[in-house]
């Protein structure tokens, strides 16, 4: 059975019933287009074996499309009014799937595995725009069981996340996302599929996890500290940008050489593998 999805009329009716006044702070732009939610689900590659974590289910547009393909969906929504209405929306539009759905009222930025009734294997979300990158990085770090993430974010943020070394837009989000796996753009989404319409275009990003650096939280935080330091002054060479991290410029130079990185480069030239080698060299030197 194909599920009933939410179109403009359903979104309007739900919003009126709940007296929803979408807030920018919570990035509340609701999708009212069936093709868009189907595209997101297809791009995620999820199937019947997956337990999908959805952040910010809102009125349930993407949730219904996910339930059509996934084994289970666990949604985390910060807005109590929206969270409270969801089980009834699922029961009305996808009665056969209602038993496969859970919603937790919480801030996704603080959610941990023990807060969820199921262990997620995938993350699929139309993320609230102002916290999109922190939410994505937090969940990839705290939920190592998530093998694939497919998120919709502002187009510009999607470009940054998927950027490769050397370019102007390659920065902290690009390197940190790559710590977790392979990152790729997975499409663009216009403004007209949302209510209310945002000012900017959206983009899809996919991360396929690759535990290349293990799942050690210490290595992750040490690597992220070097990345933050290297890009805090992105016009400086690594030798000088990393001098306070290393204690002095000569020590930064020594550690960069130990990690086989040219101290005269800028951070924007380095891959995540470079930063991991550097963090390891720093760790051995007691940083
Ligand atoms: N998934 C729905 C859709 O596609 O129509 C809504 C997406 S809307 C862009 C973002 C949703 O995230 C809103 O429902 C908002 O209330 C919720 N939200 C905002 N900040 C959040 C947070 N920190 N944790 C969990 N949910 C959040």
UniProtKB/TrEMBL annotation:
One Pfam match: RrnaAD
Catalyzed reactions: adenosine(1518)/adenosine(1519) in 16S rRNA + 4 S-adenosyl-L-methionine = N(6)-dimethyladenosine(1518)/N(6)-dimethyladenosine(1519) in 16S rRNA + 4 S-adenosyl-L-homocysteine + 4 H(+)
Domain Ribosomal RNA adenine methylase transferase N-terminal: 36-211
Subcellular localization(s) per the UniProt record: Cytoplasm
A molecular-function term among this protein's GO annotations: RNA binding
PROSITE patterns for the chain: RRNA_A_DIMETH, SAM_RNA_A_N6_MT
Family matches, as CDD domains: AdoMet_MTases
Similarity-based family: Belongs to the class I-like SAM-binding methyltransferase superfamily. rRNA adenine N(6)-methyltransferase family. RsmA subfamily.
Function: Specifically dimethylates two adjacent adenosines (A1518 and A1519) in the loop of a conserved hairpin near the 3'-end of 16S rRNA in the 30S particle. May play a critical role in biogenesis of 30S subunits.
This protein's name: Ribosomal RNA small subunit methyltransferase A
Source organism of this protein record: Gordonia neofelifaecis NRRL B-59395
Gene name as annotated: rsmA
């Amino acid at each position: 059975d194909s599920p009933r999805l939410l179109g403009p009329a359903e979104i309007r009716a739900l919003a009126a019933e709940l007296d929803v006044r979408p807030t920018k702070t919570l990035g509340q732009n609701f999708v009212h287009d069936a093709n868009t939610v189907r595209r997101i689900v297809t791009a995620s590659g999820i199937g019947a074996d997956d337990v999908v974590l959805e952040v910010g289910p809102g009125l349930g547009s993407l949730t219904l499309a996910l339930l059509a393909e996934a084994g289970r969906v666990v949604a985390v929504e910060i807005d109590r009014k929206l969270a409270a209405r969801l089980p009834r929306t699922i029961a009305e539009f996808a009665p056969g799937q209602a038993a496969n759905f859970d919603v937790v009222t919480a801030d996704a930025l603080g959610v941990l595995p023990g807060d969820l009734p199921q262990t997620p294997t995938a993350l699929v979300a139309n993320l609230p725009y102002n916290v999109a990158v922190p939410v994505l990085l937090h969940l990839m770090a705290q939920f190592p069981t998530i093998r694939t993430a497919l998120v919709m974010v502002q187009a510009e943020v999607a470009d940054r996340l998927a950027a490769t070394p050397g370019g102007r837009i390659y920065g902290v989000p690009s390197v940190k996302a790559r710590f977790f796996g392979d990152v790729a753009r997975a499409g663009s989404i216009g403004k007209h599929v949302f209510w209310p319409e945002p000012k900017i275009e959206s983009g899809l990003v996919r991360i396929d996890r690759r535990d290349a650096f293990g799942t050690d939280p210490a290595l992750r935080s040490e690597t992220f500290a070097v990345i933050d330091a290297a890009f805090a002054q992105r016009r400086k060479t690594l030798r000088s940008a990393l001098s306070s991290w290393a204690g002095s410029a000569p020590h930064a130079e020594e550690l960069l050489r130990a990690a086989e990185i040219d101290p005269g480069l800028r951070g924007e030239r380095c891959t995540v593998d470079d930063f991991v080698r550097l963090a390891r060299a720093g760790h051995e030197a007691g940083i």
